[in-house]
Amino acid sequence: MERRRVIFATNNQGKMKEIRTILQDTHLPIYSLKDLWIDIDIVEDGETYTDNALIKARAIHALFPDDIILADDSGIEIDYLNKEPGVQSARFGGVDTPYAIKNQMFLDQLIGVSGDERSARFVCVIAAVFPDGSEETCMATMEGQIATEAKGENGFGYDPIFYVPEYQCTSAEMTEELKNELSHRGKALRKMSHVILERIEDRY
Fold this sequence. Notes:
Blueprint lengths: L5 E3 L4 H10 L7 E3 L16 H15 L4 E11 L5 E2 L13 H11 L9 E11 L5 E12 L15 E3 L4 E2 L5 H7 L1 H19 L2
Parallel strand pairs: 1-2, 1-3
Antiparallel strand pairs: 3-4, 3-5, 5-6, 6-7, 7-8
Helix pairs in contact: 4-5
């Protein structure tokens, strides 16, 4: 069997740490765009998480058609704000705006809102394009609430304001092991890991 690489269409090294941990069972080398010195501007103009994940995966597949290409799109949906920002999560408030500022913007919008009205979820879709051109997608969610203040140093993005009542902590306060078990991305990656293993066994 010819050895394949997995290329994940991201430059986010915090995300890559999680990805490598969860996909280690594939026993394939896993690279980010940064690892391969790839600087590409991909316009994510899809209407859904699946659209955007596939847009990114297809763009990188065009550059590396012999590899297994993965990409994700994820976001946070706040029910009180009509499930915003959703697919616009990464671009909310400006692409270059620090997440500390973005997080505070949401905390400010929910002042006076309590209990279940603060319900929210993380959503993630992982898309794969395989060397034969076939595509697969996996979706998962993580349910919780918007915290009343940002807490924790172990996450990134919106993790410090995403509170999980069952564990009485934010996503950014969780251990790496617990976060990988519960997170939207962790769940979607595990689903995709099974898909990749099946493809390796059946075709590659």
